[in-house]
């Protein structure tokens, strides 16, 4: 190997190591002294920028400082009170207000107008309807069963719907075959364009239908992610050494956490939630009970449920914001809290891939794509 090649390999290793450090970087701890003065807050802002490698030019930095201060005070006040079962931290979203955060990560690059397009029809029925809730295990964790891949990062692309879809397809494939294979979100972004809009939003139900009709989904290795819209490379997708197939999907009966638990006890499930709240933005650990609505804007996946040491029931939810957010990329959300549709609407629009033969399809019904905002 030549000297140039060796240097390039060393440089690549250094870059990879730097990215790993940035990804694993937890958060800067907040102390009372950090909020004592404008100077202390400015020093904290500069330390935050350095730690999270967030470049800001001079004018933008001063413009965002007000937002940063507000977020820091919100986080610090919440943690000082200590009256809720979850904690917040100053993560890489530190100088983003709620509107920018939602537009970038919870509803990335949303369209200005609502798109009421058709939703791919589900296989009629609910295969777990006959399950008795009292017979369900007290806790389920599909990570422990080898049915969940590592946490991924969607970046600044409104592709949450693709990541949510992939988690549940990876899960059912692992359960059925005993092999956990990381699948391609990028293929969905590039190729599933009939009803979904890549980085501008989409729906998991439509993605399931694409996978069924396409004859499967390529692996992550064969069709890697690059966090932007691209041209569908059918050769690359079909050239995958492993293509995971499904026979369709079913919807969990809406607004029922009991029905959702029946499904999750048998496989990971794709769900839509309202992730635009400030507390959700800075979630760090514990069972999340924060304020949120039901304006579903983010696709995630439920990969288990359980009860914490204080007796609070929770859903184990896999997100796609990298491992530096939440509990190494996961959030535990309150379960059975008495909310219609579940906390943040988690039980409103849940669905999962199936391996049964599709039956006659019902007429498609309108649903707003995740990653799109309502018209004003």
Tell me about this structure:
This protein is of the alpha+beta class and 376 residues long. The strands form three sheets. Strands 1, 3, 5, 6, 7, 8 and 9 form a seven-stranded mixed β-sheet that branches. The longest helix has 24 residues, at 58-81. It is built from ten helices and eleven strands. It has helices at 3-24, 38-52, 58-81, 98-106, 160-177, 185-191, 204-214, 234-238, 257-264, 278-281, and strands spanning 86-88, 116-118, 140-141, 249-251, 269-273, 283-288, 298-307, 313-318, 330-334, 351-353, 366-368. Belongs to the peptidase C1 family. Residues 354-376 are annotated as: Disordered. Keywords: Disulfide bond, Hydrolase, Protease, Signal, Thiol protease. Residues 45-101 form the Cathepsin propeptide inhibitor domain.
Ends apart, CA distance between termini: 60 Å
Largest sheet: 7 strands, mixed
Residues in helix, %? 25-40%
Average of per-residue pLDDT values: 86
Which structural class do the helices and strands define? alpha+beta
Fraction of residues in β-strands = 5-15%
The tally of beta strands, per DSSP, is: 11
Q: What's the helix-strand series?
A: HHHEHEEHHHHEHEHEEEEEE
* Rg from Cα: 21 Å
Shape: globular
